[in-house]
TrEMBL record:
Function recorded in the entry: Acts on tyrosine phosphorylated proteins, low-MW aryl phosphates and natural and synthetic acyl phosphates.
First-listed, main subcellular location of the protein, grouped into a coarse class: cytoplasm
Lineage summary: Eukaryota, Metazoa, Ecdysozoa, Nematoda, Chromadorea
PANTHER family to which the protein is assigned, alphabetical: LOW MOLECULAR WEIGHT PHOSPHOTYROSINE PROTEIN PHOSPHATASE, LOW MOLECULAR WEIGHT PROTEIN TYROSINE PHOSPHATASE
Annotated EC: 3.1.3.2, 3.1.3.48
Record-annotated active site: D111 (proton donor)
Catalytic activity: a phosphate monoester + H2O = an alcohol + phosphate; O-phospho-L-tyrosyl-[protein] + H2O = L-tyrosyl-[protein] + phosphate
Family according to the record: Belongs to the low molecular weight phosphotyrosine protein phosphatase family.
GO molecular function, one term: acid phosphatase activity
InterPro entries in UniProt: LMW_PTPase (IPR050438), Ptyr_pPase (IPR023485), Ptyr_pPase_sf (IPR036196), Tyr_Pase_low_mol_wt_mml (IPR002115), Tyr_phospatase_low_mol_wt (IPR017867)
Stored Pfam families: LMWPc
Keywords annotated in UniProt: Cytoplasm, Hydrolase, Protein phosphatase
Name of the protein in question: Low molecular weight phosphotyrosine protein phosphatase
Amino acid sequence: MAEAIFIYLLKQRSITDKWIVDSAGIANYHVGKGPNRRAADTLRNHGISDFQHRARQITEDDFVTFDYIFCMDYYNITTLEKLAQRLKVPKKAQIDLLGNYDPDGEQEIEDPYCAISMNEFEQVYQQCLRSCMGFLDSLNK
């Protein structure tokens, strides 16, 4: 959801031409699959209906291609830092928690994949929205 929200905010600010946005997982569980139906429904409920995505696993190139790699939780940060060290890539990307930009201070964003209700997806949407807005706003300071 974070990728879709970030792209949506870039469109609202008319700055999509200045960004390359992508998302990837640390595991290969869902490689090639589209967005979770409940995530897509949540995005549609907020006017984001044009999101196209196929899941992929993070690659060595991502560390040198992107300026930022945002993680949802501390486990992902630790895993990516170890991966970058193991691969010995000249890391360009700043690895950070997306939630570090949440003005409400909720640093970790839980994966709602196993959630029973749509409430968890809505909560993640709101956290990602606040965090993406906070990040973009921080660049203008």
